[in-house]
Amino acid sequence: MKAGVDAPDALPADSPSATAERVPVSVFRPLKIRKAVDEVISVIVDALHSGMIEPGQRLPREADMAKQLDVSRNTVSDALARLESAGVVTIRRGKHGGASVLTRSIPRTLLLGDREPTEIVQLLQARRPLELQATLLTAEHASDEQIAELRRLVSLLDELLADPDEFIAVDLQFHAMLGSTSGNALLGTFLEDLFRRLLALRMQYPRGRLSLDVALGNQRLSLAAIESRDPARIVAATEEHLGSVEEHYLGGRLDAWYPSSLSID
Fold first, then answer.
1. Burial of 162 from C-beta contacts in 10 A (0-12 / 13-18 / 19+)
2. Rounded CA separation 151/172 (Å)
3. Measuring CA to CA, which residue among 64, 43, 40 is closest to residue 52?
4. pLDDT for the residue 16
């Protein structure tokens, strides 16, 4: 505090600040700071989802992981214990022991429990409402020329099944274009940022194995729904499309999201 400036409690009794109503502490929300053990779990889970770690493989030694992640060995041990309780790894004790991966399917309680969701979960959660709204608006507002461009992008995918990197680039171009064809520039900006993040995450883990045949089928399904301009059909196609991606990365689908104006059985 600067010299010559009294603390609030030292203000004269007739000062407006002395008689002003105090802001209730309830206006502040508790800070949710992730624990180091949650960060370690997130790193392992993201690597599993991406294909960097395969079922049957042994994880590095606890000491090596602790050094690489710049955390204590106890933190790594606690993270592996939670993954073992969730049935994701099995831990063998002893000199030649360690943690071995049992499955890449992560229980939802571990992904979406009390701790902060992993990066891939957050991106896929955000994608649902953003992309569904953009697709619905595209069907409502897109010109015939814009629909033709979407159709052209899907046709390109047939020729790129043998080139995964190019396939993914065109696939994301289709999804990102939904932002501009929606007629909502802000929504387009949000989608562009989301897909940049998804692409960056995939590039960190280039061995992800999402079937390109499945991805192509999903794009065809989405395009046909847009061309029908039927909101209910678009919702169903988007649910199937995004759900299959979530199954690949998360081992299950996230909760469906629908606009309040639609009633889906």
1. exposed
2. 14
3. 43
4. 58
> What does the pLDDT look like over 175-204, one tens digit per residue?
989 998 999 999 999 998 998 888 777 665
CA-CA distance, 172 to 67, in Å (whole number)? 36
Percent of the chain with pLDDT over 70: 78
> Which segments of 105-160 does DSSP mark as H helices, in order?
108-111, 119-141, 144-158
DSSP SS3 for 96:
coil
How is the chain split among helix, strand and coil, in percent rounded to 5?
Answer: 60, 5, 35
- Give the residue ranges of DSSP H helices in 159-184: 164-181
Q: Of 106, 57, 54, which is closest to residue 79 (Cα–Cα)?
A: 106
Phi, psi of 96 (to 5 degrees): -105, 25
Residues 239-257 as b or e (16 or more Cβ within 10 Å = b) = bebbbbbbebbbbebbeeb
pTM of the model: 0.60
Q: How many residues does the chain have?
A: 265
Structure tokens at 14: 């007739």
18 or 135: which leads in pLDDT: 135
